[in-house]
Here is the input.
Amino acid sequence: MNRQIAEKAWVIGIIAVAGIAGLLWWHNIRTIDAKQVAVDERGRSDVSIVLTEAGFEPRYIRINSGTAVTFSTTNHKPFWPASNLHPSHGIYPEFDPRKPIDPYDKWSFTFNKTGTWGFHDHVRSYFNGVIYVE
Here is the structure.
């Protein structure tokens, strides 16, 4: 009987830890702090974000509505920048090329909706960032 209780406690503990980790991850990709905005690109008509081995650079940007953002990579692997949530891309469904981008190609998207738009690489979803559109 004690073994069954211990096994159940172990499973409940794993589920709790996974749930907390998931909530922390969710909070991280949904929250933008003005201090996190590494690059203020307001006033430019086009902006570049590069997926490197360390993630998106810059990871956080602030732009005006109507700005085109061009995504590329230095990883020599296909990539797929898209709106959160992974894997549906439903928060800003237009912000999705709907297929992987060849590592030697670029993909551009013009942000016409104001708001805070989390994004990720659909191929490696642990790479993420935020675009704040004013």
